[in-house]
Structures
1.
Amino acid sequence: MDKIKIIGGNKLSGKIYISGAKNAALPLICASLLTKDTVTLTNMPELSDIKSMNALLLQLGTQIDEFDDFVDGHPSKTYSYRTPEATSLIAPYDYVRKMRASYYVLGPLLARYGHVEVSLPGGCAIGARPMDIHLSALEQMGAKIEIKNGYIIADCPNKLQGKRIPFNIASVGATCNIMMAATLAQGTTIIENAAKEPEISDLAELLIAMGAKISGHGTSTITIEGVESLHGAVHKVIPDRIEAGSYAAAAVITRGKIELINAQPQTLQNPLQILKDMGVKISETPNGILVDATHAHLVGQDIMTDYYPGFPTDLQAQFLALMLTADGAAMITETIWENRFMHVPELLRMGANIKVHGHASAIVRGVEKLSGAQVMATDLRASFALILAGLIAEGETIVNRVYHLDRGYEHLEEKLKAVGADIERIHEADDIAAE
């Protein structure tokens, strides 16, 4: 199993290109199941989660073509998806257990074929994420849902029916699933308390390009007027705001200066304001965002995660690590998922001063220094928090179980090395040979 080795102490400086957004790409891939025509997605990131989703669609009968491409002058991937007729309507456990987002096939397959079986995804390292909202909404639209032998079995022999569906929480997953399902339903569906994340709007834009009638995306009320069928389209995936926020934190924690090429400041207003309040210079450039902490005297800031446009839960771990280098104390409050402080014990081993209160909050106090250590990644975003700590720690830090990082950060060590980090990936074979 690969590891990442970091020798801390280097100030980062230069430019990092922000890749296509993982959290946008995954539902976009599943949207291709709504039509027999070809859906082409450009600016796709090279990530293990994309490979896992592609493997699932291949199992369902989708034909996938992969192309090397250049987007905005940078190497990228383009994928074309074509599903003339699904050869399976089952998303097996072996696929869903690897990647929870596999449940995005639920809405499209049910809408197009009237039947789908999806393995229950269960919990994950950052807490349980129930499917109740998805299933309740589909039942309201006329589907019959049965849970049997660990699978969601959904049937709707006649077409799904458009309904007014209020969500009790602004779930991103449920908003994506129901929006996709509603495109082929009879009548009009109105999702109330819909998620407002940029990834929702990106999915809506693809669906509209495919012939769907959708309005209100980006607000809490999305209206979808069902159509008879959808057609193919070409769509460019939006830049990854979480990757951009993560590398912004890398610039700040090392007191460096990085231009985040392709980053969209309008999708990061809350995190960027936190950085400004800490004492960091943030400016928009013709190509993205410039983060300058070269002369910053950082002051700790309280953070509370919230649904978009609030502070993203997917940046909580990274900004918690950032507060270790700031003066004073900062309270980090997690309101979205439980068990999202699992990286804290690893940071404590490096000399951090953090006190966790229950599952919801942590008090972080700045420290003089961190010391390199062997640490274990517990989930995707926690992994990057450990990378950040390693960048400033004295000596050598080894981050184990980096397959978490490969799920959401494209070419991480190459990007960090290009701006001055002393970082390398250790492959298991290399490790054995060294012994």
2.
Amino acid sequence: MKDTRTILRETRAALGALTGARAKKNEALERIAARLESECAAILEANRLDVEAARTAYGDVMLDRLTLTPERIAGMARGVREVAALPDPEGRVLRRVERPNGLVIEKTSVPLGVVAIIYESRPNVTADAAVLALKSGNAVVLRGGREAFRSNAAIVRAIRLGLEDAGLPPTLVGFVEDTDHRSANELMEAAGLVDLLIPRGGAGLIRRCVENARVPCIQTGTGICHIYVDASADLDQALDIIENAKTSRPSVCNAEEVLLVHRDIAASFLPRLHDRLVTEREVRGAVPVELRLDPRAAAVIPGVPAGETDFDTEFLDYILAVAVVDGTEEAVAHIARHSTGHSEAILTRDGKNADLFTARVDSAAVYVNASTRFTDGGEFGLGCEMGISTQKLHARGPMGLEELTTYKYVVRGNGQTR
């Protein structure tokens, strides 16, 4: 097993193979997609072993994050081809200025260099991170969790075979086999070898990276996502949106965790919410949602009294914290106190309240009459994503190709001096 710094040095040394290789990059992505398809059986077998080993430690919702299916692998390959079809951000002139002295100054998009990503549980991240990095001209070092080690290794093998098929060095995609905390710390401290570190996982991982990294670090992922149902909302539509945002895949960061309901509709809407998320789901054999209620909501429907931390928790499960508020202003204030800056939504037919909400809520994605589940690189037309940034520098929201570049100034003259 190679040590982390050796892997980093090999990956950085391979970077030169991508310089000026626009057509070669697209060919590599097409070859990688084909390899993911041809290696599907091997990837599924590796994933089966991971899932079996994790059953005693994980619940069904978290196992869903870990599990691959033929359809999910086909989706990986489809995402790779979608990224290949996107415009190449490398070398794009972002701004051009001609100065009075004749200098021509071009602000030009360039890759970051070596991007390292530390992630947990979700093996699809392995493919997403690799192809976004390669298309944008970067090399990548992947460090997944031990629970998905076999799956990640099988996917990396397919990616590296695709790179070799295209005549590119497989070391453009580094894979850290050591899943001990030590290897994560080594990536955080690899100044001069890592140009950007992206932690993609739970709040503990992200906090550890942000607090300890000696390399530039992007905060991603943690999503305490809110939906506010305004007094004027279409309540049938609201129930559909809330059920989708909470139950379509509760283990992901864009799932709804908190529901806020206007006091004027609480008495009529909350019983319908309970019927939809609890009673009807029990009848059809689906997992019911546990409602954790503030005192005003608890006065209307049955549920679990909300604890002190329930409005500050990313449940990643069939659990929803519910509160009744006096209006849009109070909803905005509640979100400001409890949100992680990921995704929030207002359900309303009042244009002024929608405008107030979108102007005042300071999150990466703010929705009007739509599910928070759309905060995703594929849904935003980015092909896939490196992660969802909840900070404001250098990127915010789903990170695609453009967010994996920086820029430099290219200045052309004909003898000017100052």
3.
Amino acid sequence: MNRFPKEHKLCGQLRIAQLYKEGQRFTAWPLRVTFQEITNNQSPITNQILVWAPKSLFKKAVKRNHLRRLMREAYRLHQDLLGEKHYEIAFNYMDKDPQSFAVIEKAICKALKKIAES
């Protein structure tokens, strides 16, 4: 069973470009987080996220995929911290070294709490 369905994934070049252009940014090390609240006139009814680990830092696809998997799982476990509002969120991994799940989970929790407060 897929626990991270398609409707939770942020996709589409225009929507991603709009998020990076108009969204708010902050850092929760080792992540850079960009987010914006989804208004009622936009179509998605759930939070949508984008997870990214750069090829410039991790040449092997296996490492990039592992980091993305860790970020998605940490988000899935703690998405209830966002409350009733709906957001588009991009998590960009910035550290040169791969971190453990505990470090990534702590950063995701910190980021989600900060987003919910804004």
4.
Amino acid sequence: MDFYEKDLEFAKIFENFALNEVVNEDGQELPAETRYTAILAVLIGCGGADAFRELVPVALDAGITPVAVKEIVYQATDYLGIGRVLPFIKAANEILEECGVVMPLDNRETVAPEDRLEKGAEIQAKIFGAHMKEAWKEGHINRWLAANCFGDYYTRGGLDLKQRELITFCFLAAQGGCEPQLTAHAKGNMNLGNDRDFLIRVISQCLPYIGYPRSLNAITCVTKAAE
């Protein structure tokens, strides 16, 4: 973050907190790759395009792959809509090219039109339980959810299922107003092995980027999901 020319006092406060106190808080540490995966996701979720642009190169240096950056952005479409995601698609492309990444990246699709619904429903069942295998039959939105959200995106390469469910949690936490869905996806994370302690650490590391109210709401949702 380049605040030093005109905002030196603010820069000292923010960087001491976000890059020192938070990162090194005892019991709240995360591996750098996981930390930046979550931070990139919450920046998309809260519409933080300028901060996203600054942090993508840092995330690449921390071990995030160009493919992972693009997959984080792509999956956000399910939870934010293309109106809010399009600026991040453009930003990611520009930054990756500036970093010397040859575009477009290799194809990461793993499903076809004829099996995307089936594969999406299977993933829903893995995350939320066997009852979700038939949930797509409840209406066209449920069918789209299985085929598009989970079939088109969650099946793609570049991120594993635990990472994809984590970034979904981050999108929902950062945008706010989605607490029922956030609670459900907190539980989904736990079902995949991203336990309560891990999610609290994720929220802690993301707090400087989304603020206290949404972070506290996310902790409440995690606590409720763990009951």
